[in-house]
Structures are given as C-alpha cells and as structure tokens.
Specification:
mainly alpha; MetI-like fold; 294 residues; 2 domains
C-alpha cells in the first residue's frame, strides 16, 4: 500500500517512528543535563558541610577531603544544631506553613468555585481584580502590612506570620480554571437531587480537584517554608523565628565558616526535598489539570 507520493506507508511510518525516537532521546538528554546541573550545587553543599572546616577552601577544589571518605565529619551539623533553637524553628516553620497551606486551599478553592459556578453581578470584574494582585510586588506591601499587624498586636505571633500569607491570587486562578473545565451536567444533576451550593463544592468538586489541591498545596507549603522577608520583618523574638530567619541569624555568627553555613543550608532545605520526592507526581498531575498547558 502506497501514499499519494508513491512512497510505501510502512516506509513513512518507519521514518516517523525514527524521528519521534530521536526527539525522545534528545529531550531525555537535555533533561539529564539539566538535572545534573541542578544536582551539582546540592551535592557540593552536602560535601562541603561534611568536610573539615580547614579543607573547605583548599585550592584546587576537591570533592573528597584529604584522608579519603573517612575524613568526612558531622561536626558542622552538630555545631549548627547546638548553636540555636533549630528544633523550635522547625516547629514554627512546620506549624505556620501547614496552617497557611490549609487556609490557602480552603479560601482559593471557595473563591475559584464561586467565580466559576456561582452567577452574580460583577463576577468578571472581581476575577480581574484578583488577577491584578499577581502583578503587585509583595515587597511594596511590607510596610503597610507590618503597620496593620502592629496595630492588631500580632507582631511576634503566629497570627502575624500567617495572615498576610494566605492571600493567593494564583491559587484562585488555578482553581477557577480547573472548575471551568468540569461539565455542567454534574452540577445540574446535583441541584435536581436537592444539593446545596456548598454540598456540591465539598462533595463533588473538591474530590475531582485532588490533583490541583495537591499541586497548589505543595507549592504553597514550599513558598511559605522558604519565605524569609516577611517572617524576618514581623518576628524579633528568637523563639518565634522560622527556619530561614533562624538559620540566617545563626549564620551571621559563623563568619566565613563555610562548612557550618552549608550544613545549616542543608538542614533548612531537607524537609522541602523530602516533600518534593514524595509528591512530585501530584505536582505534575496538578499542573496538567489546571488548563495552563498552553
């Protein structure tokens, strides 16, 4: 069997298969190189943290210290753990990040559902006003937010850390995009059965939105865990510091002790690495389900 150009279809299929295979291998190679480039600094931070301080600035740079693998030491990690209230900072970061994540998921999913499924006057205007929040640099809000938290008596409190971080225009946009893609027949059938708006949202829409919930939740948790500027501004009490602020405070006392600095960076980022390793599939599925693929 031949095509219009007189070329056998099996030949065309073979060429297409080879071309697709070549593109797949090319994409794999690019991703492999990108992964290596991303892993090298991480690996270097771990190696430097495990080196004796006297060998962190040797020239030429070496991955293995003098004396071989046996020369690696956990002295820098013990130094960091004993220099400050690391466990307290871990608790503060875990508590605030978890509360922020839960609040963001609840508020943004409700807002996205309302903007997508509840007809009301001015809905489009409200949506675009929320989206306009994406172009506002968060840095210019620090002073008015601090004045507000100070007036409320929330400086050096968990409320002061949490409340300004629960506004997420991007989360509203993602949930709205997802809810827009759900067939209206599901909602109409539930309304016929006597379900309320909230019951439709909670028992039908939210179970369908699990990939989006996972993606938005993970991104929110990571961003809140890594947030340095706002906790640094609103917290002055050492016991209320989060991991980024606490480690930065401890690092200032190290001078140029590179092993201690790298050890604190590794300890601060370790929970996020664990979260990513366990939930990377949910992140990909969530992004693919939001309608942001282009």
């Amino acid at each position: 069997m031949t095509s219009e150009a007189g070329v056998p279809e099996t030949t065309n299929k073979s060429r297409t298969y080879r071309w697709d295979s070549l593109l797949s291998w090319l994409a794999f190679g690019v991703l492999l190189v990108a992964a290596i480039l991303w892993l090298i600094p991480l690996l270097w931070a771990v190696v430097t943290a495990l080196k004796p301080e006297s060998q962190t600035t040797t020239v030429p740079i070496t991955w293995i210290p003098e004396g071989g693998i046996s020369a690696f030491t956990f002295e820098s990690f013990w130094q960091v753990l004993s220099a400050g209230g690391l466990l307290r900072w871990y608790f503060n970061s875990a508590l605030t990040s978890t509360v922020i994540t839960v609040a963001v998921l609840l508020l943004t999913s409700l807002a996205g559902f309302g903007l997508s499924r509840v007809p009301f006057r001015g809905r489009t205007v409200v949506f675009w006003l929320i989206i306009a929040g994406l172009i506002v640099p968060p840095q210019i809000l620090i002073i008015p937010l601090f004045m507000e938290m100070d007036a409320l008596g929330f400086v050096d409190t968990y409320q002061g850390i949490i409340l300004p971080q629960i506004a997420s225009p991007l989360g509203v946009f993602i949930f709205k995009q997802f809810f827009d893609g759900i067939p209206h027949e599901l909602e109409e059938a539930a309304i016929v059965d006597g379900a309320s708006r909230f019951r439709i949202y909670w028992q039908i829409w939210m179970p369908l939105a699990r990939p989006v919930i996972a993606a938005v939740g993970i991104f929110t948790f990571v961003l809140s865990w890594n947030n340095f500027i706002w906790p640094f501004v609103v917290v002055t009490n050492t016991d209320m510091m989060t991991i980024p602020v606490g480690l930065a405070t401890v690092q200032s006392s190290y001078g140029l002790r590179y092993a201690d600095i790298m050890a604190s960076a590794v300890l601060g980022g370790l929970p996020l690495l664990v979260v990513f390793l366990f939930f990377q599939r949910q992140i990909v599925q969530g992004i693919a389900s939001t309608g942001l693929k282009g």
